[in-house]
What we know:
- The protein is about 35% helix and about 20% strand.
- It is an alpha+beta fold.
- The chain has 2 domains: about 10-120, Glutamine synthetase, N-terminal domain (Ubiquitin-like (UB roll)); about 130-435, 2-Layer Sandwich (Creatine Kinase, Chain A, domain 2).
Amino acid sequence: MTAKPHLTLPELKGLAERGEIDTIIVAATDMQGRLQGKRVMPGFFFESVASEAAEGCAYLLATDIECAPVGGYELTSWEKGYGDFVFAPDLATLRLAPWQPGAAIVLCDIELKGHKPAEVSPRTMLKRQLERLKGHGLSAFAATELEFILFRNSYEEAWDKAYRGLTPANQYNNDYSILGTARVEPLLRKIRNCMEAAGIGVENSKGECNLGQHEINFKYGPAVSTCDKHVIYKEAAKELAAEAGMALTFMAKFNEREGNSCHTHLSLRDEAGAPVFLDADGHAPSPLFEAFMAGLLRHAPEITLFFAPNINSYKRYAVGSFAPTALAWWLDNGTCAFRVLGHGRSIRVENRLPGGDVNPYLVLAAMIAAGLEGIERNYPPVTLFSGNAYAADLPRVPHTLAEAARLFTESDFTRRAFGDDVVKHYTNMAKVELDQFNATVTDWERFRSFERM
């Protein structure tokens, strides 16, 4: 089922004329990393969208998770009338969407009137950091390892049960288990093959530690392309699970067992395509790498908002959970926030802070920005850590969304890297979530207080 990574417009037109394609999904990524957009008929796509773009309400970059319009955003508001912005198709992303019969998909950049890029759009934010890298003669390559927990309940049944008493697809830890993963291989196989048919190269799938937890991994590639594939896969996996009468979640911490991670791998290459994280003889870390890692470690607290964007995200950071609590790096140590993996051309940094709920464009934009800060300001190397980082006296990961938001908004670094408008925008995103959570009465409060208080 392997397909070309992309379709050309003439190829798409030929498929449409033969009746093989009758729907084009036109989508952009919102702040939460979800695809938002329209399903367009081929005739209209070729007449208008492919050449002139489409339009959508600007509130898509100014809502909460429930897609409700909320205040505090300068991009748009009730006072500004919630007008439209532009969905500008990136035709390099045009591909088949084989998980939906007769469909293709194209991802878009979000632009304001006059085709001015929306600076708060996640995809644009990553592109801005890549432009900075290019000024140093560098490019970024990346991959994401996205975990999910699969249930034998449908999404509708899970909703009706208030997400209580759901049946996980596996009743025991099936980390690396061939027997355990075979129980749900029909769905996993379909996801793998659909992604492969969409030109999204799959490496493998495997079981994980939590009950019903699995991971599908994809090939390393250019940073923007990796993020594009990440958001397409996340959408497709949910749709295929729903089709099978099942449900899966990427939320960072579904229960008190292991959370869903999104370990993010990043490396830099020079203009000749050669890796730059090793010195000339290929054996020791290069000075550029040491400065990059120093920037990443120093500024990690200020950008944790992009690694852990929700209140639930911070419950994943628990001692002994394989999620980090300390900011340190080592060559291959799963207790550290960052580790270095691979050898030769494959040498890379693994960021273990992100959970399954992240927006990948924001994660990589933040990592590159922090590393560039280290390079541009020539930060001194940070000593390699050895041992159990959970128990060591090391700088800690922010404990809450409130703490991460405060560090993000008070940081001179984030304003230099992203600009005031971006900092205000994403600070407001965190404020909206905190205000709504603080106004909500939870089950935990009722169980503790109803009778005994």
